[in-house]
Amino acid sequence: MANSHHRATSSSSDISVYLDAHATASSGNPSSVVNFSRSRNIDRNSSSASQNVAEAGPLDQVNDKNAIVKVGKSKGSSAAGLAKFLDEKVPFKKKMQWIRRASILKDDGTVEIKVPGTGGSIEHDVKHNEPHGEFWDAIHSQDIQPIQPLQIVMIIVGTRGDVQPFVAIGKRLQVDGHRVRLATHKNFEDFVLNAGLEFYPLGGDPKVLADMVKNKGFLPSGPSEIHTQRNQIKAIINTLLPACKSCYPDSNAPFEADAIIANPPAYGHTHVAEYLNVPLHIFFTMPWTPTSEFPHPLSRVKQSIGYRVSSMLSFCFGLRVSQLSYQIVDALIWLGIRDLINEFRKKKLKLKPITYLSGSYTHPIDVPHGYIWSPHLVPKPRDWGQNIDVVGFCFLDLASNYEPPKSLVDWLEEGEKPIYVGFGSLPLQEPEKMTQIIIQALEKTGQRGIINKGWGGLGSLAEQKKSVYLLENCPHDWLFPRCAAVVHHGGAGTTAAGLKAECPTTVVPFFGDQPFWGERVHVRGVGPPPIPADEFTRERLVDAIQFMLKPEVKKRAVELANAMKNEDGVLGAVKAFYKHYPGEKSKCDAKSKQLAMAKSKPVHKYFSIRGCFGCSRSFG
């Protein structure tokens, strides 16, 4: 059987969908209840304009950048407006038209969704945002035995932070006797091989891919990126099948995958799994399965979960809009890549194309998903089913082999624990200005600081300061336990390392899923509200440092770290894979395998984009 053990969804990118829903009337005619204005309303606060995806089809036809189309014109019940939009009786084609008219590409790679008119105030209440229920959903307490050895290919697209957890998982799978191949970008070859795993290079230019990762490779940040990004996506897709069944260019050892582990930005993995008739298991470092508990990390919902809204109506709306945010992001991605996917299916895999209305980038709901974060930070949503696991953060021990420079060790021993500030490999537009803000904030709060230069040019000082150490590179698992608090961009891996080290955390998000992690940290009470990169000022940073130094914040950080110490995300991921693996390795010959594939249901039949709207049932 073609076990589409799970189809991939997507990740981040700056697209904005702005829904300002107003009911036009209380009549039963769906077409008269919610109307999308055909005029283009331009966001005057933005420096450039873009055509909304309303009339554009694939993303390569988008010209404008910040057009905003509002839903409806007349006054009335906003609640009724959105309810009608989600009503299953409204024709699917009409809803797709609405989404395309409401979606716009913005230069920060996100989707904006506004919970319609409540007028209610929003207050943050850290004390009432403790995790709920059973953290592990029994995955760690279950007696799950290893399965017989398989040849497993892990297809991972993204940054070093995206690849590193899978290196840790792959090493653990090898302990159980499996042969593990990690297919990823060429620039990670040494990293993968040094960890003892097999490597296979995915297509695409590593330099271009490095720029794409700011939105996880799903959605272009602007029109200028569309053609380039589509070329990279096509290059990745065309190497997926060889990654599953071809020898590595420098080796003659045959390989044929018995199972695929992948993350959503790998795009065509679902279709390769269908072609090969092997199980697929999706793992990701950010939420991709629809839930009512928080919006899609690549969306921007004005009244997000984690906040107490004074109006119960507004709260209920927030739940529906949270679910809708996943469906909108999915629809936008599918509209942008459906031609590439169908070309791949027809020419490379000899499979039937997916029709416009039956397609979706979201995986079939029966495909297992494992999410790589601590359930003590983001508990498993109550509306996620049994085939979805929150396995814990997956750490790779790098500290034990690290030799720190003597100057760093001496500086750390000279005084109190410092504040760490670093933004990794992110390009910074004004590194000198940001450096001065950091220095001034440290001086104002009387703190020592470590500034990680990264790739963005941070830390250029006219004269060296004794209270500041400029760092080139250092494993987080070695450095963060020696820091009082950390300030960073909010990547999932960096966030995990800081919290594990008992560090109160300030997130300065730049794009993608980083605001989501900044909000999670704040909701959990171990950090201040995130500071968007374009709002990074001395005053905001001073307030953030003072917040992190509060004893009660440190206490919560220690409690969270202690809870995380009882987790083993790597083991949890491996257990989840074993738990959902469909059965013993097939011994069938080629003829019987072809027969089984002929009888099996194609991947795209399990889940249709038609089911995205108006569906309130649990996922998975």
TrEMBL record:
Question: Any idea which UniProt keywords this protein has?
Answer: Transferase
Return one GO MF term.
Answer: sterol 3-beta-glucosyltransferase activity
List the Gene3D superfamilies: Glycogen Phosphorylase B
Q: Which domain of life is it from?
A: Eukaryota
Entry's Gene Ontology BP terms = carbohydrate metabolic process
Residues in a coiled coil are none
Boundaries of each Glycosyltransferase family 28 N-terminal domain copy? Answer: 152-294
Family annotation (InterPro entries): EryCIII-like_C (IPR010610), Glycosyltransferase_28 (IPR050426), GlycoTrans_28_N (IPR004276), UDP_glucos_trans (IPR002213)
Q: Where is the Erythromycin biosynthesis protein CIII-like C-terminal domain?
A: 467-565
Q: What is this protein called?
A: Sterol 3-beta-glucosyltransferase UGT80A2
Q: Report the source organism.
A: Mucuna pruriens
